[in-house]
Design goal:
The complex is a heterodimer of chains A (617) and B (350). Chain A is of the alpha/beta class and 617 residues long. Helices cover 38% and strands 19% of the residues of chain A. In chain A, α10 (293-309) links the parallel β12 and β13 (314-319). Chain B has a single domain (22-349), classed as Rossmann fold, CATH 3.40.50.970. In chain B, a hairpin with a 5-residue loop joins β11 and β12 (271-276). In chain B, 53% of the residues are buried. At the A-B interface, β9, α7, β11, α9 and α10 of A face β2, α3, α5, α10 and α11 of B. β17 of chain A pairs parallel with β2 (80-83) of chain B.
Amino acid sequence: MGEPIRVNDFAIRIATVNGTGSASANGMLMQAIFRMGIPISGKNIFPSNIQGLPTWYEIRVSGEGHTARRPEFDIVVAMNAETYGRDVADVRAGGWLLYDSTWPLDPALASRSDIHYLGVPLSALCAEGFEGARTRLLMKNIAYVGVLVALLDLDMEIVRGMLEETFAAKRHLIDANLSAIALGADYARAHFACPLPIRAQTMDATRDHIMIDGNTAAALGCVYAGATVGAWYPITPSTSLFDGFTRFCKKFRHRADGKANYIILQAEDELAAIGITIGAAWGGARAFTSTSGAGVSLMNEFLGLAYYAEIGCVIFDVQRVGPSTGMPTRTQQGDILSNIYASHGDTAHVALFPADPGECFTMARDAFDLAERYQTPVFVVSDLDIGMNDWMVPKLKWDDAYRPDRGKVLSAEQLEQMDAFYRYLDVDGDGVAYRTLPGVHPKGAYFTRGSGHDKYGKYTEDAAKYTEVVDRIARKVRSAKERIPAPVIERADGPADFAIVTVGGCDRAVREAIAAYAKQGVRVDYLRVLGFPFADEVEAFLREHAINYVVEQNRDGQLRRLLLLETGIERDRIASVVDYGGLPLSKHAVMSGIARLRPDAAAPESTGLHSKLGARA
Amino acid sequence: MTFVKPAVHHKRLEKNALGLTVRDYEGALSTLCAGCGHDSVTAAIIQAFWHLSIAPHRVVKLSGIGCSSKTPTYFLREAHGFNSVHGRMPSVATGANAANRELLYVGISGDGDSLSIGLGQFCHAIRRNVNLTYILENNGVYGLTKGQFSASADVGSKAKRGEENRQQPIDPVMLALTLGATFVARSFSGDKAQLVPILEAAFKHQGFALVDVISPCVTFNDHVGSTKSYMYTREHYRELVEADLVPLRKPIEADGARAATTQVRMHDGSLVTLRGTEPGYDPTDRDRVYMRLREIAKAGEIATGLLYVEEGGADMHEMSATTETPLVEVPFEELCPGAAALDKLMSQFR
């Protein structure tokens, strides 16, 4: 067919019905390619449903190491008749459509002449090869993996090794899976020219890496940071964070007598979850909650209390599409402003923005240190894409020399030496007052309140006394910028044509776009904010550039607005490039978004699809 | 205006086992209205803590928002206090208790704070069996916002301006019994002799202890026509159980023969003696207690006393198998699995 051979550079989209067991088949495929040493990423595009609705899994393979979503699919595996129409449309021109040919080609599938049809009678093969409806259904998934093993030239020994690890105690499952793979692979080799021009080839680029989702990594970070109290209310896409925390606590946090060095409380709602978190943090524990935007909305009143009463706690917001229920199983960065300015009255909260699961791990630790150092709520602003998808990141590492920064906490001995303790007195002149924990010493007692209080902790309705305290709190929170991770800044070779500023999970798509610009001779400087309040470098960077494109995943350009509010940068020097349809960001969205604002900038090199999948500026 | 009490103690004040007098258990001067029932409850709390010789700094006092929620400032100045947000004290208390199970937690709430905005948290703290004494200062009215009916206002009860409540009240005692609370009591702010021993038993109880205290609002709900006034409460008050040190009291019904004495051993080994004031009343039989309380409510009377107690139920920490060491005191070295464990774990992600 004249297709050039492309090694380790392709994307696959697998369309199935949720609840049919396709997740483990897709995971197997991912893991096999990862173990072949090839950089890979997977995006699960799933419904808010348990069984019976369409779901897609996208796998991108990139020898160059680009792991952002690529909405340009070389192969589509169409296993769901309900979505045939859009699945066939998703194949790039010249690509391949794999379908179940047990039945005649569906007219919805047969509509294109510019793609290759690969029919495999998967249902018939599995009906012959296996007993029982459920087994046949499950094995059909494994059989399409087998077809892909042959088409993409995957290393069968690696697949066999994975199955033997997974089902070590269940020999019959290893055999069943292997024969399902053989059914698909043998059929493909007998009927198609295998491998296809797009194919995989073993390399050595994943050796020191793992595949992990951000919620799991964040949970592990909480365990390592010494969190002992976790309170939560189930909400997609944050639930798996507490699933992970529970799992790791069971593994690592039981004492010799079997008793738990932690307590996990599933609250009645998010109000209670944050209330428990605040109570525990006030009591002296490292405490956290995880939720999504809807939960943060409910937590607002309490967040104002924690801010004003100065109680350091950690909130993970695994963002999903809002407003309201929105699209609960799609990703977005729509909570940036509602996190930073959560609650009524004047507030501003410390926030960290992880770009991938590796940063979810380190920022979980950082968040507790910041919360205790500054005695204020700290958000870790993740999202569904980071939280729930498996990302390739360097192995997580831990420094055994780490000790928690508990900030200014007075011990019984220190209190004993003092004449009097006042909770909100700025003794050191840095805006951070000393705190005490309940039960430690009679002199440490004070009354915590969300109502007006003076620097001695006494109730007040006096203008000057109120102002003195809230001014100090503002100063304190601003000063957190000194300990927040510095922004990532990468400069082009030579003077930049423009700059891109971004946040969180946009990182990989933006980097890929910058690499593409570089190939076209366009020089782009890059900045990614890692936290709020912004470090001074952020504004300095913005000022260096005539134009900064702020790339983010929400409609209103929330990071851009935050930059306008919190730095002195002029409006016309920062422009918004946004993508907010709920799918992980792609290079195409970044480049077409910038091209729309900047006619001289190159559009992404294209094979046709992006017009309907790309960004809107 | 400042509210500082003189620190000079009368030398004849009696000392408890810790060498502390009642004055050592006091707090700031109350800013509530003169005659407010809540101030009597505060006095009872002070008395109970003093009598039990509990070190003030080992107590944590919490509240939500409202007149009742102001009161934690009026007792135990050497205890950490937390005046949280409206209706959400139970969750804050739950968290604080999660962090440090060794301290004694007392939450003060009101009928608005507990039965309207905070009904959910109230119920779930019971369900979770948080080791917390929950004192509900119940006056049937919103005081701080000047006289609206609360959810505990009885049908037919009249507001100060004559408006009559038509909605069914939420009775915290019946609710707590239904939800499985292991300590349910009701008392009256005007009856310190009854209230103090109930509070003492509540502080000793392992688990959630509800003490519903009818505490009349002198400003907005103490008029004729109110069912939460001093006079109405006194006239319709029916003590079902006497606890521990209460001197024998004449039952309201002259013919009420006395039931047998029940002794309940509390978690710390202390004994609470319960003396029924009517035949057949058994404060450890939830179903019969529930039935009897309904009868009394139907008759328009207010059942009081330590109405139900069940010792030995699993509290939040027992259900979670938490270590006996307060979590705040577990050293970091025991909490962090370390670099080697992480390295080993990484193989699961390949």
